[in-house]
Design a protein that fits this description.
121 residues; alpha+beta; Lipocalin; nine-stranded antiparallel beta sheet; 2 helices; 42% strand
Length: 121
């Protein structure tokens, strides 16, 4: 059950496929509650759920402090094509996503709440 929930959360996070900050603004790895997200400079993000040995890829973009995430249409995690909007607050060590709106509840649950700690490789 836990692995299924973590898989749904990871899929939901990536249902966030497109983020609207300048690609690369969030560049790096962040970890929260056993989930790692790697924001790449080319606008891709990879989410890894260790407990489920699961990797999910999506795209992201940023506009100011607003992150818009769109799941890939072929997403099998239960949120295909879902759009999520978050405000982003960064510190030197972590990032916090605050829900504006998201049609994917699993992503909203995973993104919001706890800060995502910057993870050194």
């Amino acid at each position: 059950m836990l692995i299924r929930k973590l898989s749904a959360v990871a899929a939901g996070i990536l249902a966030a496929g497109s983020i609207a900050f300048a690609a690369g603004a969030l560049e790096g790895m962040y970890e929260s509650n056993g989930i790692t997200m790697e924001f790449q400079p080319d606008g891709n993000v990879v989410v890894h759920v260790a407990a489920a040995n699961l990797d999910i890829s999506a795209t992201y973009a940023m506009d100011g402090d607003t992150l818009t995430i769109t799941s890939p249409a072929e997403d099998t995690g239960g949120c295909p094509g879902a759009v999520g909007v978050y405000t982003v607050a960064e510190t030197d060590h972590d990032v916090t996503f605050t829900l504006v709106e998201d049609s994917c509840q699993a992503r909203a649950d995973a993104f919001s709440g706890s800060p995502w700690m910057m993870h050194s490789e």
